[in-house]
Amino acid sequence: KIRTGEYRHEIRTIGKAVGNRYITKYVLDLEVVPTITEFHIYGDKRGRIHIPKEYRSDVTYGPSVKALSAVLYSEGVMSNDRIAAFLNAASAERLKLSAGSIYGFCRRLSEASVESISHLENHMLDQEVAATDGTTVRINGRQANIRNFSVKDTVIYKAMKGKTLRELGEIDLLRKYTGTLIHDHETALYHFGTGHGECNVHLLRYLRKNTEEAGNPWSQKMAELLIEMNRERKKQQEEGKSSFHEERVSEYEKRYMELIQKGCEENKNTHHKYAKNEEKALLKRMEKYRENHLLFLHDFTVPFDNNMSERDLRKAKNREKMAGGFRKESGNEMYCAILTVIETLKRRNMGLLENVKKLFMGTPAIF
Questions:
Q1: Bridge partners, 145 (sequence order)
Q2: From the CB of residue 352, how many other CB atoms can be counted at a distance below 10 Å?
Q3: Which residues pair with 157 in a beta bridge?
Q4: Amino acid 152: pLDDT
Q5: Cα radius of gyration (the chain)
Q6: pTM (2 decimals)?
Q7: How far is Cα 226 from Cα 201, in angstroms, rounded to an integer?
C-alpha cells in the first residue's frame, strides 16, 4: 500500500541509527485536514459570467463534508447537532457546521438519489423472492411507519403513514411486485405478490411461548420439527440441491399436521382460559397457513425466515430511540431515501463515501 501511494508515508526513527540493522513497525492513522478549493469563473465571449448553481454562494461545503454528514446521519445514533459538533471537532473547529447544515446536506442527498432509487426498484421487481418488514416511528408525536424490502444485494425503505391495506397499496413497488413475499404474518400483504412465505423464526417464538404458558408438549415437538426441517434443508443446499424430493416433503407435511391434530386434543385440557384461547388461535393459524409456513420446503430460494429484513430495520429503530422520531413526514421520506442508497452500497461492497460523494456531484451511484 505504501509502494502504490495509497497511504502517505513518512519514516521516524527510535534510538540511534547505527549500521544497517533495525526492526520495522507501522502505525496506521487518520489525519483530518480541512482544504479549500478556490474557483476562478471567467466570462464567455461577451464577457458574461455564468455561475453554476452549486457555486451561487461565495463559500460552500464540498462533497466530502456532505458525504460524511449523510453517512453519520444514516447510522441513526447521532442527532444533527452532534454530527455537526463531531465534524467541527475533527477539523479543529475550522468547518463551523451547524445542525441546519447537516439537515441541508441530507435533504440534498435525498433529492440526488431519485434516479438511483428508481434503478433499485426496477431491480427489486425482477427478484423472485423478497423479504419485507415494518417498524413504527413517530412524526410530530403521531405514529407512522417505515417498511423495507430486502434481497441479497438491495434494500429499499419506504415511509408510510400506517400499515393498513390502503396504505400498503400506495407503495408503487408493492403494487407492481409479482414475486414471493416473505413476512411475519401480515395478512394485508396477501393482497400483493403471487406467493407468500411466513417467517418461521417468529413462529418458533410463539411456539416457545405456548409451551411455557399452556404447558402442552405439542408446541415443543413442533418447534423441534421446524428446526429439523431447516437443518436438513441446509444440508441439501450444501449438496447443491434446490428442493427436497416430493416423498420427503410429504413426510414432513404429514408430521406437521399430526402435531396440529395432537395440539387440538391437548388444547381441550388446557386449564388457563387465556392460554387456551391463545393456543387455539395459534393452531388455527398454523393449519390455515400451513403452505406458507412450509413453502421453504418446496423451494430452497424461499428463506426459512425474514431475518434479513428485520436486520435491515435496526437502523430505523436506533434512530427512533435516539431522536424520538421526525418532525415532518418529509423528514421520514428523506431518511428512507438516504438509508436506501447507503445500505445498498454497503450490501454491494461499493465504496461508501466515494459513491455518496458522486451523488452530491450529480452522478448516480447505482445503475
A1: 136, 160
A2: 16
A3: 148
A4: 95
A5: 27
A6: 0.89
A7: 9
pLDDT of residue 213 exceeding 90, the answer is yes
Mean predicted confidence (pLDDT) in 32-59 = 89
* Predicted pLDDT of residue 324: 67
- pLDDT surpassing 90 at residue 325: no
Partner residues linked to 147 by β-bridges: 134, 158
How far out from the chain centre does Cα 287 lie? 31
Cα–Cα distance, 293 to 25 (Å, whole number): 56
Q: To the nearest whole number, what is the mean pLDDT of the chain?
A: 93
Cell of 343: 445500505
Grid coordinates given for 98:
451547524
Q: How many whole angstroms separate alpha carbon 100 and alpha carbon 104? A: 6
**Amino acid identity of 171?**
I
Count Cβ atoms within 10 A of the Cβ of residue 159 and give its class: 0-12 exposed, 13-18 middle, 19 or more buried. buried
Please give the order of strands across the beta sheet that includes 154-160: 154-160, 142-151, 129-139, 180-183, 195-198
Specify the DSSP class assigned to residue 319: H
What 8-state DSSP symbol labels residue 326? B
Distances in whole angstroms, Cα of residue 319 to Cα of each of 47, 128, 140, 148, 153: 51, 31, 14, 15, 23
Q: Which of 154, 155, 131, 132 is nearest to 145 (CA)?
A: 132
SS3 at position 103: helix
Q: What is the DSSP string of 160-223?
A: ES--SHHHHHT-HHHHH--SEEEESS-GGGGGSSSEEEE-HHHHHHHHHHHHHHH--HHHHHHH
Q: What DSSP designation does 41 have?
A: P
